């Protein structure tokens, strides 16, 4: 059964009274410079209009000095109400979710403002005739009360706007910090994942008592130096990333027999040894790792074919092709945990290149092709 209109209005009234719409803060916030400029700009504009209106009406023209003195006193009084509401009343009431005390504070401010407003008019003589008669004095209570309310509401409106913008900046900063933290965690996951796979390869060499094992350890130390020291920045030059990738390929070539030097092929177009095109570090490595982890290195003439094309527009295309051994029904291999590198890569791409990348994965019988395109 749908709620009645009366019940819906009561629910909205309760939600409003809880002040869920107001940014919660009980701190005495300093008044921003833009608020000072806007507030005093409005006051000076009203004073200028009053002086212009006085000059444009010769019959009711008042002395210029009296108008300036009245404007000074009323501006100081309005400023007192404005800043009292901003600095004291709002943080101790609305900032703590207390609507009732705020309304009481507004009434108290008006009870102070209205008599002082009469006093300012009396001092300069501009309202002497008004306050002599009780009836006329009562008539001025409403205009002065409206002026005070407008000043208070103007202060409250600017304060909630400032608090909202400040909260929005804080949320964006928090999201940015969370993004950096997540990226740092994703990057730290690359090192153990890479190290786990490489140590398996070195173990394979040592178990066969291969003479290539010492060179493999040396290659690994070079790669780890890059992982620890040179990839700590947000981006690295493409030439530096490709040099690291070449070291990884040299390490993988040690697994192949000497008669197959071209089984791993790496073609690079439009890139120079000192190419400074920025790229996120360790972004290409997971695709190459998967090719060696799941590919058939016994395939000939090329077991793994890697190509990179950098266009003048900054569009980068990285393609990794590896052959897959046909399934052997007679031999059942144990399942190996995997997928960490590729899922990690997808998440990093979503964070670092939002709406600026395409990751295409195609698997056909006997082949596996992954194409990564980074847009400028």
Automatic annotation (TrEMBL):
Domain Signal transduction histidine kinase internal region span(s) in chain numbering: 182-257
UniProt keyword list: Kinase, Membrane, Transferase, Transmembrane, Transmembrane helix
Entry GO CC: membrane
Membrane spanning residue stretches: 33-55, 67-90, 102-125, 137-158
Molecular function GO terms recorded: phosphorelay sensor kinase activity
InterPro entries for the chain: Bact_2-comp_sensor_kinase, HATPase_C_sf, Sig_transdc_His_kin_internal
Record's protein name: Histidine kinase
Lineage: Bacteria, Pseudomonadati, Bacteroidota, Cytophagia, Cytophagales
């Amino acid at each position: 059964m749908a709620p009645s209109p009366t019940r819906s209005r009561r629910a909205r009234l309760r939600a409003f009274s809880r002040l869920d719409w107001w940014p919660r803060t009980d701190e005495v916030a300093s008044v921003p410079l833009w608020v000072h400029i806007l507030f005093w700009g409005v006051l000076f504009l009203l004073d200028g209009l009053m002086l212009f209106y006085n000059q444009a009406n010769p019959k009711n023209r008042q002395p210029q000095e009296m108008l300036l003195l009245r404007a000074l006193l009323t501006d100081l009084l309005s400023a007192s109400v404005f800043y009292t509401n901003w600095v004291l009343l709002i943080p101790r009431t609305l900032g703590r979710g207390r609507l009732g005390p705020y309304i009481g504070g507004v009434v108290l401010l008006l009870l102070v403002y209205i008599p002082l407003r009469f006093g300012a008019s009396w001092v300069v003589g501009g309202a002497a005739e008004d306050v002599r008669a009780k009836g006329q004095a009562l008539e001025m209570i409403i205009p002065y009360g409206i002026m005070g309310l407008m000043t208070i509401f103007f202060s409250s409106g600017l304060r909630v706007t400032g608090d909202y913008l400040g909260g929005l900046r804080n949320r964006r900063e928090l999201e940015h910090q969370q993004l950096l933290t997540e990226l740092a965690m994703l990057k730290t996951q690359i090192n153990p994942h890479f190290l786990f796979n490489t140590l398996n390869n070195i173990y394979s060499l040592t178990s066969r008592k291969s003479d290539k094992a010492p060179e493999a350890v040396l290659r690994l130390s070079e790669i780890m130096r890059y992982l620890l020291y040179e990839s700590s920045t947000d981006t690295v030059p493409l030439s530096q990333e490709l040099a690291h990738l070449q070291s990884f390929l040299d390490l993988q070539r040690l697994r192949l027999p000497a008669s197959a030097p071209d089984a791993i092929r790496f073609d690079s177009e439009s890139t120079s040894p000192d190419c400074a095109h920025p790229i996120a570090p360790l972004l290409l490595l997971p695709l190459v790792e998967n090719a060696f982890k799941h590919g058939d290195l016994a395939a000939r003439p090329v077991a793994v074919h890697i190509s990179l094309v950098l266009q003048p527009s900054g569009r980068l295309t990285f393609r990794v092709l590896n052959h897959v051994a046909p399934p052997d029904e007679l031999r059942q291999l144990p399942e190996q945990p995997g997928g960490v590198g590729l899922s990690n890569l997808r998440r990093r791409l979503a964070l670092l290149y939002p709406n600026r990348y395409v990751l295409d994965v195609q698997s056909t019988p006997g082949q596996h092709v992954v194409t990564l395109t980074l847009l400028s």
